[in-house]
């Protein structure tokens, strides 16, 4: 039922298929179906639209929005794609070299980024151009140099006093090898807190 809800064709016939029998977009849909089936309160999505074409990317974002809106599922979205951030996020935390450098609601962050790295990420978002080749009305060119980014001041942790809702210590994820191949350890000894 969950596979049908996320748009997998012939879901009742395909529930026991192997991963290689699905496209990249279908694999992402199945992961979302798993979150639906499990009634997950929180989904951590690490680059959920990377390597998907624009149409499939849009469909996956619609499904994630459905999780968020219809099922009140919290989503921690990990991405470098600021277009995806603008489309899906309510609140944004920007990390640079493993450190949290800026936190803001999505509108404030896009309208008035404070940290140089955030500004650099926003400059990387493709701009819409007019037929004459110039920027579209309202598009202001901005940019920063590598030297400016290196000299960015340290900022205090805005979540220092926030309640921890997820705490992971020594997290390990290992995928079993098949057909005589050894197991693959994807994550070893990772610690993190979500506040």
TrEMBL record:
Localization recorded for this chain is: Membrane
Comp. bias regions, Low complexity:
133-146
Checking PANTHER family in the record gives: ATPASE AAA-TYPE CORE DOMAIN-CONTAINING PROTEIN (PTHR43297:SF14), OLIGOPEPTIDE TRANSPORT ATP-BINDING PROTEIN APPD (PTHR43297)
Tell me the GO molecular function terms.
ATP binding; ATP hydrolysis activity
| One Gene Ontology CC term in the entry | membrane
- Record's signal peptide: none
Q: Sorted alphabetically, which InterPro entries does this protein's record hold?
A: ABC_Ni/Peptide_Import, ABC_transporter-like_ATP-bd, Oligopep_ABC_C, P-loop_NTPase
UniProt family annotation: Belongs to the ABC transporter superfamily.
- Domain (ABC transporter) spans 1-50
Where is this protein primarily located?
membrane
Q: A Gene Ontology biological process annotation? A: peptide transport
Q: What is this protein called?
A: Glutathione ABC transporter ATP-binding protein
Question: Where are its TM segments located?
Answer: none
**Location of region: Disordered:** 133-154
Organism name: Brevibacterium paucivorans
> Which controlled-vocabulary keywords does the entry list?
ATP-binding, Cell inner membrane, Cell membrane, Membrane, Nucleotide-binding, Translocase, Transport
Q: Which Pfam families match?
A: ABC_tran (PF00005), oligo_HPY (PF08352)
Gene3D superfamilies listed in its UniProt record: P-loop containing nucleotide triphosphate hydrolases (3.40.50.300)
Q: Where is the Oligopeptide/dipeptide ABC transporter C-terminal domain?
A: 101-133
């Amino acid at each position: 039922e969950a596979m049908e809800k996320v748009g997998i064709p012939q879901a009742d016939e395909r529930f026991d298929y192997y991963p290689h029998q699905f496209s990249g977009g279908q694999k992402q849909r199945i992961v979302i179906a798993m979150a639906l089936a499990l009634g997950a309160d929180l989904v951590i999505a690490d680059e959920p639209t990377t390597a998907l074409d624009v149409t499939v990317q849009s469909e996956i974002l619609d499904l994630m929005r459905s999780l968020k809106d219809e099922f009140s599922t919290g989503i921690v979205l990990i991405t470098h794609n600021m277009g995806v951030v603008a489309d899906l996020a309510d609140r944004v935390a920007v990390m640079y070299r493993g450190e949290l450098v800026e936190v803001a609601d999505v509108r404030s962050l896009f309208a008035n980024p404070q940290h140089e790295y955030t500004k650099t990420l926003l400059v990387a978002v493709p701009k819409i151009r007019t037929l004459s080749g110039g920027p579209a009305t309202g598009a202001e060119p901005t940019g920063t140099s590598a030297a400016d980014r290196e000299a960015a001041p340290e900022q205090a942790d805005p979540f220092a006093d926030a309640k921890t809702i997820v705490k992971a210590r020594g997290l390990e994820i290992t995928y079993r090898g098949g057909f005589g191949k050894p197991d693959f350890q994807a994550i070893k000894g990772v610690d993190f807190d979500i506040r």
